[in-house]
Amino acid sequence: MQQNGSSGSNGSDGCGGARERQALSFSPLLPAATTRVRRFIQERRTLPLPRVMVVFSAAGDTEKPGDAMSSSDSVAEDDFRKPASPAPSFALSKPLRSSLNTPEQEFPEVISLNVGGTNFTTRLSTLRRYEDTMLSAMFSGRHYIPRDAEGRYFIDRDGTYFSDILNFLREGELPHRDRVRAVHREAQYYAIGPLLDSLEDTQPLTGEKVRQAFLDLMPYYRDNLERIVEIAKLRAMQKKARFAKLKICVYKEEMPITPYERPLFNSLRFERSDSEAKLFEHHCEVDVSFGPWEAVADVYDLLHCIVSDLAERGITAEQQCIGVCDKHLINHYYCKRPIYEFKITWW
């Protein structure tokens, strides 16, 4: 009995000792956890919050759950690869745009202008007569216009023909014929469409349209004109001369006959085969050749165009016929294209 009692006490002591050892084994962790919690509280640290991503999709778009997860994963990877950019804030962008917009400039009813050093005075409504013009845009209040020392609005443009521009804006008046070309250039600069339309229906611009339609039959016309100028300049410089002479062939039809022999044929051109046509192909011994063309305008009309276009460039040119090309072609046919001598005077 005593032995059972001793064994019972020993058993009770054994259980109690196990509990004490278990408590002692966990007791060192409690102070450590408490210390970490206190440290976070003292340093005001918070645990990192999980990132939440919201994906918006269109009303009609449907995705499978697997696709949504894969897309979210790829977006998340992109977020880690690229630095985050701030989202646009509409509340901040609106005041920013309004602050960038400068208030529209106000103009008096009477406007004083300085156009290239020439002074003009007109009404504001005159400058705004047509909306789609440069002057209307300048004085709309949306653009800055510099002023001269006396307060006049300055336009950096030659003012020689600006009075013609104002006269058209005031009452639709057109310039004199000798000023039409120059005013047309000014109307192009100021983008005044109604004035351009009115000028193009008057002489000499209407005649220029007809003349250009004739010159369009010879796409090489401008190139030949440049060649005339270059050859004449080179010869004058080589000979140290005041003028230079060139031989120019001007022919209308590709036929080895003179205009006086044309009634012998029923058509403007011979009916030849390709092999026969090659027999008549040749180059006259001249500096420049013009032709052939099919139009009512004749050789003398083209000669007038050449002389007038050279005069537009300040080059004085005189021409006279010095004969025909007498090159033998085949059988009893000769070239007989007219050749003209051009005299280009430089000073």
Describe the overall structure.
The chain has 347 residues and is of the alpha/beta class. The chain is built from 13 helices and nine strands. A four-stranded mixed β-sheet has the order 5-4-9-6. A three-stranded mixed β-sheet has the order 2-1-3. A two-stranded antiparallel sheet has the order 7-8. β4, α12 (274-279) and β5 form a beta-alpha-beta unit. α8 packs antiparallel against α9. The longest helix has 25 residues, at 2-26. The N and C termini lie far apart (155 Å).
Protein traits:
alpha/beta, three-stranded mixed sheet, 347 residues, disordered N terminus
SSE blueprint:
Blueprint: H1 2-26, H2 29-42, H3 65-81, H4 90-100, E1 110-115, E2 118-123, H5 124-127, H6 134-138, E3 153-155, H7 162-171, H8 180-190, H9 193-200, H10 205-215, H11 221-239, E4 243-250, H12 274-279, E5 288-290, H13 299-312, E6 316-324, E7 328-330, E8 333-334, E9 338-345
Parallel strand pairs: 1-3, 4-5
Antiparallel strand pairs: 1-2, 4-9, 6-9, 7-8
Portion of residues within helices: 40-55%
What assembly state would you assign to the polypeptide chains in this entry? Answer: single chain
> So what's the overall shape?
elongated
Share of β-strand residues: 5-15%
Report, as a whole number of angstroms, the end-to-end distance.
155 Å
Q: The biggest beta sheet, please? A: 4 strands, mixed
Question: SS-based structural class?
Answer: alpha/beta
